[in-house]
Specification:
Pathway: Cofactor biosynthesis; thiamine diphosphate biosynthesis. This is Aminopyrimidine aminohydrolase. By secondary structure, this protein is mainly alpha-helical. It has one domain: Heme oxygenase-like (Heme Oxygenase, Chain A), CATH 1.20.910.10. 80% of the residues lie in helices and 0% in strands. The N and C termini lie far apart (46 Å). Bound molecules: 4-amino-5-hydroxymethyl-2-methylpyrimidine.
């Protein structure tokens, strides 16, 4: 079997992908040893990431070719507005993150860069470009979270376990696999759109790695 378009994009980013899924932050999260200030900083920045990400999901819903795909994104948007947001609020409470930090933090360069990638995809309105960024964000998180299934997880605090559990399990896996098949089924015939989607994919993987680095780089 020859590799699909999405598999080729994925393999072209092997180095950054492995650095992100094997990152110190993930090691410490799974071990339950991540320092509270590191986790708080990461979650504060990630809440801002989630703002652009929600907009990106909305664009996917708008750019999707038909009702079946559109409803798939609509369901995921609903999950984001409930389970994922609850996790953030509960974790901010547990970690004592003040209001201003929750809603108007100073953004790190890594967050700004990732935000740009997502906003570029939104502005393109290209289904392939939007899906490429979404797929990286979700598949890379599935990959590191499934390390807990393979190796076990020593973490027990809800702020730790909750973040792992949001990114693994049969439903999350099915969502990621659906998106990957959807991207391959919608490989652009326009070479410029295809090229832009490939660049969006690559940039997103580099952003994921830099985002974890930034949790320590203060
Ligand atoms: C930075 C980042 N990438 C991916 C996800 C999950 O999509 C997340 N919550 N944050």
């Amino acid at each position: 079997m020859t590799a699909t378009w999405s598999q080729r994009m994925r393999h072209a980013t092997d180095l950054d992908w492995a650095a992100a899924t094997g990152h110190r932050f993930v090691d410490e999260l799974l071990a339950g040893t991540v320092a509270d200030d590191v986790l708080a900083h990461y979650l504060v920045q990630d809440y801002q990431f989630c703002d652009a990400f929600t907009a990106l999901l909305g664009q996917a819903c708008a750019s999707a070719p038909g009702l079946t795909s559109r409803l798939r994104f609509a369901r995921q948007l609903g999950m984001f507005a409930s389970d994922e947001d609850t996790y953030f609020i509960d974790s901010f409470d547990a970690l004592g993150v003040p209001e201003a930090e929750r809603f108007e933090p100073t953004l790190t360069q890594a967050t700004l860069d990732f935000d740009r990638v997502m906003r570029d995809a939104i502005e393109s309105r290209s289904y392939a470009q939007v899906l490429a960024v979404l797929l990286v964000a979700e598949k890379l998180y599935l990959d590191w979270a499934e390390r807990a299934d393979r190796d076990g997880m020593a973490a027990t605090r809800p702020e730790h376990v909750g973040w792992v559990d949001l990114h693994r399990g049969p439903d999350f896996r099915a969502w990621v696999e659906w998106m990957q098949a959807e991207l391959d089924a919608n490989e652009p015939s326009d070479p410029r759109d295809k090229d832009a989607a490939e660049r969006a994919f690559t940039r997103s993987v580099a952003c994921e790695r830099a985002f974890f680095d930034a949790a320590y780089g203060r």
